[in-house]
Amino acid sequence: MSSSSLGLLLRLVHQHWTQAVEAALDEAGYGDIRPPHANVFTFARPEGIQVSELTKLARVRKQTMTQAVEELERLGYVERRPDPNDRRARLVFLTEKGQGVRPVAMAAGRRVDESWTALTGQQQMDDLRTALRRLLEQLQ
Fold first, then answer.
1. Alpha carbon of 10 to those of 6, 88, 121: distances in Å?
2. Share of the chain above pLDDT 70, in %
3. DSSP string covering 14-74, please?
């Protein structure tokens, strides 16, 4: 690849990761999950979480997150319940079906990690993780 654009390289690597996770989810019977739904599964908590908090954590627009939650609710992956601490708010919870998604996605992610490590070497992967972590810390 001749491009040295970091943004493009990150995007292409992310696409590879996403495709591998999507394939694993599809194979496990979760073929109706789309990439925008990943933000819900990534940040949902056992005690529930408000859509506004999901929006902040995922750094997406509220409309985008609301749409993802509504789709996942229709598909049976999440449910919304009243927030006991705020009468006006509702909390998002993973259903039993939704809780089955994370282990599949995490296992697929580990397989990608292992394959990339086999291609580049452990030190390069460790260095990449360290550099990205440092960059994120500085950006926040």
1. 6, 39, 18
2. 98
3. HHHHHHHHHHHHHHTT-TT--GGGHHHHHH--TT-B-HHHHHHHHT--HHHHHHHHHHHHH
Q: Please, are residues 105 and 24 in contact by the beta-carbon 8 Å criterion? A: yes
pLDDT at position 140, please? 82
Largest CA distance in the chain: 55
Q: Are 95 and 79 in contact (CB under 8 A)?
A: yes
The two structure tokens encoding residue 128: 């990449």
Residues with Cβ within 8 Å of 112's Cβ and at least 6 positions away in sequence, in order, are 16, 17, 20, 21
**3-state DSSP call for residue 91?**
strand
pLDDT at 99 over 70: yes
Say what the pTM is: 0.84
pLDDT for 1 beyond 60 = no
The three-state secondary structure class of 137 is: helix
